[in-house]
Amino acid sequence: MTVDHRQQHLENVRSVLSTLVYPIQYVVNLPVAATHWLSASFVTRSKLLEENERLNQEQLKLNSRLQRFAVLEEENKRLRELLESSIELGERVLVAQLIEVDLEPFRRQIVINKGRNQGAYDGQPIVDAGGIMGQVIHVGPFSSTVLLITDPTHALPVQINRNGLRAIAVGTGQDAILSLEHLPTNADIHEGDLIVSSGLGNRFPRGYPVGTISEINFVPGEPFARVSVLPSANLGKSREVLLVWPHDQIQKQELNEVAAKE
Amino acid sequence: MIAKQHNGGWVIVVSFVIAIMLTAMPLPEWASNWRPSWLAMVLIYWCMALPDRVGIGVGWVLGLLLDVQQGTVLGQHALGLAVIAWITIVSYQRIRVYPLAQQAFIVCMYILVFQFFNMWVRGIMGIPSQHWSIWLPALTSMLLWPWLFIMLRDFRRRYHVY
């Protein structure tokens, strides 16, 4: 147990065992998948039309925002070139589906249906439509286990979007609360501030939303404020998640491929 | 002395697979704290019925599989299951002759031991789990034990597992 906790030698054993366990999880997931499939195939026509309409409008809105975004991206690139700093764009993503199995109730973990065969790796960031969800902690050949940001053992380097103040967001074990650690009581923070990932630590890509500050408590006599954050990702609700390959990870993989060819 | 012939090993394997499936089955949030320790119960049954076939080694391997499925540190459930397999093997001659209700109570005690080891390992890993609800699985396991016992016994007799 100590070996597994402290070192990574047993990852291979776990990966092999996970191949044995995968069929069991697959079978357990079948009824859930069947229900989703059934409800998807028996929707009424009017409902589909309605949804289509809604999606069209949403796409229109997003597209118009994207146009501005493209201009801003170019401008940002130009300014960065002026400052001679590196550009961190161009991430690769892959959609993965949740396998609905229950894990230990004391930890916040999920299982997804993409594994090493699809290129997932240990420590890979996972996001959904709302923001950062967590990171991969065990990779099997066909499935991987994801540690959510709300797990009490998970910490994530973040910054406040408004003023760039850096902090660490630690999970609390409760579904809808993260806490910002070690922020002094006179820090410039307000309820409703958007928290984004800061990219320090080289694990999560920069600039993905993490959550918004929901509550600030100043406890007299304590050096730090108690700051709660409401995660913006749909933890516990989304069925589809995105695996993200950050830019430097892609470069590393390409370098490895080149090295393997030579 | 002639070695005893074994029969019907697949029944044991299938029962363990079903137990792991029941452990992984998604339940609503309020019910997941009440989920009985299926694998521990089935293991106790087979250790009791066939102590010469199912023992500490089987418990350990099953525990490793459960660890991978549950995403816990390798060895957490393995330790707990190996310990309750050992207790059962030491005491199977007494438990076998107990009436069902008393058996259920003993099983409740064993599951408490299992949960205690789980809590202990989690505590060492720094995952807080001091909530009283961690003891609920022992209660539900106790209530379900008579049915599980009768079901597994009938299966064992029908398929001549020995």
Describe the protein:
The complex is a heterodimer of chains A (262) and B (162). The model of chain A has no long low-confidence stretch (mean pLDDT 83). Chain A is α+β, with helices and mostly antiparallel strands and 262 residues long. In chain A, 34% of the residues lie in helices and 26% in strands. Chain B contains seven helices and no strands. Chain B has helices at residues 9-24, 29-32, 38-49, 56-70, 76-97, 100-125, 136-158. In chain B, α3 (38-49) packs across α7. The radius of gyration of chain B is 16 Å and the shape is globular. Classes of the chains: A alpha+beta (262), B mainly alpha (162).
Structure keywords:
heterodimer, A: 262 residues, alpha+beta, Thrombin, subunit H, six-stranded antiparallel beta barrel, six-stranded antiparallel β-barrel, 12 strands, 34% helix, globular, B: 162 residues, mainly alpha, 7 helices, 0% strand
Count of extended strands of chain A: 12
Computed over alpha carbons, the radius of gyration of chain A is: 21 Å
Morphology of chain B? globular
Strand line-up across the major sheet of chain A:
1-2-5-4-3-12
Separation of the first and last Cα atoms of chain B: 18 Å
Count of the domains of chain A = 2
